[in-house]
Amino acid sequence: MHRIHVIIAMDPHTIAQGARSIKDALVKNIDLAGLNQDVRVVETGSLGIYNKGVVLVVFPDGIYYTGVKLEDVSEIVSEHLVKGRVVTRLRYSEIPEESRAEEKAPRFGKQVRVVLKNAGMIDPESIEEYIAQDGYEAFGKALTELTPKDVLKIVTDSGMLGRGGAFFPTGMKWGFAAREKSDEKYIICNADEGEPGTFKDRLILEGDPHAVLEGMCLAGYAIGAHMGYVYIRGEYHMSIARVRRAIEQAKKQGLLGKNIFGSGFDFDIQVREGAGAYICGEETALIESIEGKRGEPRDKPPFPPSVGLWGKPTIVNNVETLATVPQILLKGGDWYKSLGTESTPGTKVFTLVGNINNPGLIEVPLGITLREIIYDIGQGIPNGRGFKLAQLGGTTGGILTSEHLDLPLDIINLRSVEAGLGSGAMLVVDDTHNVVELVQNFAEFFNHESCGKCTLCREGTGRLVELLHKLTSGCGSEKDIDLIERLAGHMMKSAFCGLGQAAPVPILGCLRYFRDDFIAMAQQNQQRVPVSA
Amino acid sequence: MSDLNRIDQIVAGYQSTQSPLIYILKDVQKEFGHLSEPVLTRVAEATRIPLSEIYGVATFYSLFTTKPKGQHIVRCCNNAPCWVNGSKDVLEKIKEYLEIETGETTEDGSFTLEFTSCLGLCAVAPVMMVDEQVYGNLTPEKAVAILRDFKTKGSANA
């Protein structure tokens, strides 16, 4: 029996800061100290502390260490693990002692952890640890006590809205597929996360993969599907490995496969890897990609719940959505509704990035304000610089400025200012940046990612880059600003899929709030360059 | 260069998988380095999928390449979260050091420089990926030091 557990966060963020070699050194030093019977080193997903170097927690003491370097390892082992004396110079003191509380969701300041309740708390490679935290209890309850209709009703009544970005009611979507009569139906977990600034799905997959699998099992039971696919971005090597391992473990325990727990319900899950295409996050493009084709979006209708993968009824849900489902089943729709606001129940996982002191993954109830997220949780903007704008929901997201700092964030309020929650990425931009150059960066991204199927997006994104480049390189005029605005307006109305329709959103948003910056740049250009016809 | 017969074996290994083309291309690329015309033609024959369709897939996804690449692939992120943290300067310095533009391979064949879309490592932006290893909190100087390590030792410490 191990007396002490050292938890080390192993995610690409910490690996990029040297976590692997620290773990190896820890194990070696623990062996040398003769403590290998007493101390167990456990890899876990992200602990929610970013940009503070390698992060360790020593349990049962609950002491967090940040910025751990190779040369600190022997001191941690000889002082803390051998003698029980905390190495105070490395201690991270902003985590409250209650963070491993059993009954309530752990709180990091204003955060409420529902989806992330296990992330960083359990070993994601151990199904036993997930089961010990009520894992697969919801699935067991569904199979033994509830009909598929009951499961559907609980999810529908919870008012849950899909967390992939569109916030479509999850229960309603499932209902469409449940009503279809078909010999086969499919559940797809959309883990093709690629929206710039977003990494919530990866950290959920890496920190708590079984929660996603359990959500898929429940979705499958509710609509009558027997096969699920997790479509993961090809670049997410660690997510792919952890989910594959989780599937194997679940099969061994009889939680996936034929006639699960003698209930007569069959369900299996496979991983499908992407091959590098942003557009594959669009659900019909994703389906095309699983079918081995170019990931170009399909014409809708018919929508996937009627005609999806291989022509069968298919539900495509986001990782965060699926990981929340088991808890709704266990705790009920009313509990879920008690979190968040009336229009948008539940919590939302945000990734806080850009010019921010404390970047990272946070989970908060909806209704929180931008000010609380940026200045309380994010600890403000570095080097005392001012706030220029925030972009919410990834690069396709709307633009918020200082006038929106106290707006409670939910879908209704955001819609009123032509923004949305989108993928949950929150990019904070300080006042040292030029907005026109930022918009050019957005346009370059869309031009790179446009799949080329429809003319408006393929050609339109290219023309936007050219027009913006003209402005930033010193030869654009005010006429070009009008042209950008008109072109963006056309794309929004006529592009084939969400990519081309959303690409103009941040561009028009920046024009709405910072038109003066565009005009100033154009006028500067006119002064510099003699006007030609 | 591996034997083209290997392709038949790879395809045969996916007989029980529904729509396996992307998996097949991944394995074939791993074996042959890049997806050349003779290689894709053989895949078409073995899978009985039209070559035009296979070529369409091979050129659609960024992880596939129809041209040979350098020994190490440097993928720089220049999406907005990296950009506001100075990725532009990092990229410029890398181009200067390697003496190539994005999308090109160095003359000695040691590095290919590419863009990557967001890798989801924005909390340690700006970032780049060299082969399968990620590096964060880059400065122009740090990026060059990492590449210099690759040049001399074939790997680097973060």
Detailed description of the structure:
The complex is a heterodimer of chains A (533) and B (158). Chain A is of the alpha/beta class and 533 residues long. Chain A is built from 20 helices and 13 strands. Chain A has helices at 12-15, 19-32, 73-83, 127-132, 137-145, 148-157, 170-179, 200-207, 209-223, 237-252, 283-290, 319-331, 333-338, 370-377, 411-416, 435-449, 455-472, 478-494, 498-502, 504-528, and strands spanning 4-9, 39-44, 56-59, 63-65, 186-191, 227-232, 268-273, 314-318, 347-354, 360-365, 387-392, 398-400, 425-430. A 5-stranded mixed beta sheet of chain A has the order 10-9-13-11-12. Chain A has a 4-stranded mixed beta sheet with strand order 2-1-3-4, with helices on one face. In chain A, strands 7-6-5-8 form a 4-stranded parallel beta sheet, with helices on both faces. Chain A is globular. By secondary structure, chain B is of the alpha+beta class. Helices cover 46% and strands 11% of the residues of chain B. Chain B is built from 7 helices and 4 strands; from the N terminus they run ααααβααβββα. A 4-stranded mixed beta sheet of chain B has the order 2-1-3-4, covered by helices on one side. In chain B, a hairpin with a 2-residue loop joins strand 3 (128-130) and strand 4 (133-135). In chain B, helix 1 packs across helix 3 (37-47) and helix 6 (87-98) packs parallel to helix 7. Chain B is elongated. Chains A and B meet through helix 1, strand 9, strand 13 and helix 16 of A and helix 2, helix 4 and helix 5 of B.
